[in-house]
Structures are given as C-alpha cells and as structure tokens.
C-alpha cells in the first residue's frame, strides 16, 4: 500500500526549500550579484549594457559566473529530483499516479510533447515581442546570465542543465502535486492544477509580476496537459523545448 502521507510530507518539504531558495536567488539578483540582468530574474530598472562576448575576447569572470550558475542549478535541482524519486520509491507511489505507467505509446507522447512545447514557445515569443512593442520591458537577465559563451557550454546547457530542470520541475509541480495528490487524497486534479501553477509562479518570482503571471499561465497549461494525457513524458518534453528554444533563439548568437 502506498504511503501517501509520507510522500506528501516530503513533497511539501522539497517545495518549501525550493521556494525559499528561489526567494534567496531573487534577492541576490536584485542586489546585482548575478551578472546579466533579468529573466528568471527581475531588473528593477533599465538593463545595463551587457559586454559583448566573442571568441577572441572572452570574459573570464563572466565565464566563471555562468559556469557556477549552471553547476548550481544542475546540482540543486538534481538533488531535489533524487530526493523526490527516492521518496516516491519508498512510499510506493504507483507509477501511473506520477504519469509514468509502464504500458503507453512513448512515441505518441513524445510527438504530443514536441507539438505542445513548440506551440507554447511560439505563443510566449510572440507575446513577449508584442509586450515589448508597446513599451513594456520583459525580464531577460537570468537567461542572459545562464547563456554560455562557448560550444562546450551550450552542450552542457542543452544536454544536461535544461533536461534536469524540465524533469525536476515537471516531476514536482505536475507528477507529485497534481498526479500523486489527486490519486492519494482524492482531490480534484484541476484544483491541484491551479494550486500547483500558483506555486510554480512563486518559484519564478525573480521574473517580477509580469514574469510570474506568464509562468503561472504556462504552468497551468502544462498541468492541464498532464491531467488530460496522464503523461509525465509529454510535459517534460514540452517544458524542455520551451526553455531550449528560448535560449537558442534569443542567446544563441552569443556562442563561439
């Protein structure tokens, strides 16, 4: 029998720690400790000019800071993911409740995830451009801070860091908070989708009010996709593509 209360308590603990770290990161970025100026972070005033990063004139301090940021994200979220996976195993949470039933059509789920992620990216990108066209500044600093300035850095970002982020955040906010909680405690999955999306937005508070609204909306769409498809793979793929395309399109020109 599944130990739902044990898993729920562990999930609540991980969520609390994540939100606390997000709040700390927000304060750090606001104080100017993180290079760049705004994406999953908030710029209180106009963005300062960002130094050009070229193959012939690399910035050692910027490279170091980017490398440390990438390592911090990968290690912290990777550790949280391992804790949740271990907790799900110990609590005997059924795979189906987490959106990973053994017998499913993975190719179909992958295709749905690709279509959903591409669509969400396009909506987000055109929405950002429309907002900027009317004079509202959109947050971009943390994205700029995490954007590598070398081919090797891009490989690490796209093949390691962003997959860890997508898997961890979808496992926490969709598989655990929506799937497991609805299966274990008979809560409405749509109510949990709303609540988890609010938590998802709070976890990205460094983006400012506008960024939180956008992130919350994105989180609700992903939660809805999870409820409808019952698939963790769909939302992980979609989440990864939104992040990867955003980095590649907006920051890819900075790579060596």
The CA-CA distance between the termini, in Å, is: 53 Å
Q: Unreliable stretches, pLDDT < 50, 5 or more residues?
A: 32-64
- Please give the count of helices: 8
Mean pLDDT: 84
H/E series: HHHHHHHH
Q: Give the domain tally.
A: 1
Q: Please describe the biggest sheet, giving its number of strands, its sense, and whether it closes into a barrel.
A: none
Amount of helix: over 70%
Could you please describe the fold and organization of this structure?
The chain has 256 residues and is mostly helical. The chain has one domain (4-40, 60-97, 106-254). The protein contains eight helices and no strands. Helix 1 (4-30) runs antiparallel to helix 2 (60-90). The longest helix is centred in the middle third of the chain and has 35 residues, at 151-185. Mean pLDDT is 84; it is low at 32-64.
Observed structural traits:
256 residues, mainly alpha, 8 helices
Show the helix and strand layout.
Blueprint: H1 4-30, H2 60-90, H3 106-133, H4 141-146, H5 151-185, H6 189-202, H7 208-229, H8 232-251
Can you describe this structure in just a few lines?
This protein is an all-alpha fold. Helices cover 71% and strands 0% of the residues. It has helices spanning 4-30, 60-90, 106-133, 141-146, 151-185, 189-202, 208-229, 232-251.
């Amino acid at each position: 029998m599944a130990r739902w209360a044990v898993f729920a308590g562990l999930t609540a603990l991980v969520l609390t720690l994540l939100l606390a770290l997000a709040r700390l990161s927000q304060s750090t970025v606001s104080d100017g400790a993180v290079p760049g100026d705004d994406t999953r972070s908030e710029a209180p005033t106009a963005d300062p000019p960002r130094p050009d990063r070229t193959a012939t004139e690399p910035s050692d301090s910027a490279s170091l800071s980017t490398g440390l940021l990438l390592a911090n994200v990968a290690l912290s979220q990777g550790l949280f993911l391992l804790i949740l996976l271990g907790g799900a195993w110990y609590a005997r949470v059924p795979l189906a409740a987490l959106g990973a039933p053994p017998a499913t059509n993975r190719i179909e789920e992958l295709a749905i995830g690709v279509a959903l992620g591409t669509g969400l990216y396009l909506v987000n990108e055109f929405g950002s451009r429309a907002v900027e066209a009317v004079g509202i500044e959109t947050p971009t600093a943390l994205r700029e801070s995490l954007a590598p300035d070398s081919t090797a850095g891009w490989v690490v970002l796209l093949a390691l860091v962003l997959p860890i982020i997508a898997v961890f955040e979808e496992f926490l906010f969709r598989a655990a908070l929506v799937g497991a909680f609805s299966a274990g405690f008979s809560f409405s999955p749509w109510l949990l989708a709303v609540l988890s999306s609010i938590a998802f937005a709070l976890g990205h508070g460094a983006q400012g009010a506008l960024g939180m609204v956008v992130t919350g909306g994105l989180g609700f769409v992903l939660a809805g996709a999870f409820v409808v498809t019952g698939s963790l793979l769909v939302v992980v793929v979609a989440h990864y593509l939104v992040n990867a395309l955003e980095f590649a399109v907006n920051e890819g020109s900075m790579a060596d």
